[in-house]
Amino acid sequence: MTDPGKYFTAIKKHFGTEKLTELYHTNEFTLTVAVALPAQATDKHVNTVTPKLFAVADTPEKMLALGEAGLKEIIKSISFFNNKAKNIIRMCLVLVGHGPIKHAGGWKFPEKYHNRDELMTLPGIGQKTANVVTSILWGAPNIGVDTHVFRLAHRFGWAFDVDNTPEKVERKLLSIIPEKYLDVANHLMVMHGRYICKAQKPDCANCPVKKLCEWNK
Ligand code: SF4
Questions:
Q1: Which of left, alpha, beta for 80 (phi over 0: left; psi -120 to 50: alpha)?
Q2: Is the separation of the CB atoms in 185 and 156 below 8 Å?
Q3: Closest Cα partner for 145 from 158, 163, 162, 132?
Q4: What is the pLDDT of residues 120-131, one digit of tens each?
């Protein structure tokens, strides 16, 4: 198997980005909401909605002041907005229970949430969201496995038929990806899957890892 580090070096160079996500956000709370919103929706579409939302509600307190009806009105073009709005409001109710949280750099989570398991106790925060958030915010060695990451792990020859769930693929990725790439692995694989190695028509001719790729061979 080709060293996964070589893939990440090439993909990072190709996209030339230091950003860890394309999702618009302004602090730890808005990042979490932004990561939780795209299930069955694209990041691009979510980014057309969130600037308006976060302009009025960039903390749990302000989100509760906006209210479930107000939140639904703003995010109504996103799939499953009813459920997503309910969960965001329930999450905010839990977070305000910790009292007002103010930091110079904007709203931040209480320290007890700085790990995946604790973050997943919040309403609406599943494993994929918790993985992405903990890895972006605190550099945790967790990899959110969405449809792009799942597909690429198999195409790159890192996962096999038996790795047929996101959890199994995540375990496989964590066992082979060099530590220095763990915090960027999700973002780089999502970018590569979204713009180059697409599900239906992978753009192999313009792919920065075509010489490494098992599927191409
Ligand atoms: S060579 Fe083709 S299949 Fe392989 S990673 Fe690149 S785009 Fe995907």
A1: left
A2: no
A3: 132
A4: 999 999 988 999
Residue 168 annotated among the catalytic residues of the structure: no
CB 41 within 8 A of CB 50: no
Active-site residue (options: 43, 62, 146, 210): 146
pLDDT for res 184: 85
Q: How far does the centroid of ligand 1 lie from the alpha carbon of residue 2, in Å?
A: 14
Spans in the chain with pLDDT lower than 50: none
The DSSP letter of residue 93 is H
Q: How far apart are the CA of 4 and the centre of ligand 1, in A? A: 14
Return the ∠ at Cα 165 (arms to 189 and 91), rounded to 5°: 80
pLDDT at residue 179, as a whole number:
87
- CA separation for the pair 103, 58 (Å, rounded): 13
The string of pLDDT tens digits covering residues 20-42 is 888 999 999 999 999 999 777 78
CA quadruple 180, 38, 155, 142: dihedral, nearest 10:
30
**Please, how many CA atoms are within 13 Å of residue 55, restricted to the half-sphere of its CB?**
7
- What span, in angstroms and rounded, lies between the C-alpha atoms of 184 and 190? 10
- Give the closest residue to 95 by CA, choosing from 27, 20, 37: 27
Query: Positive or negative, the Cα torsion across 26, 31, 37, 39?
Result: positive
pTM beyond cutoff 0.85: no
215 lines ligand 1 (CB under 6 A): yes
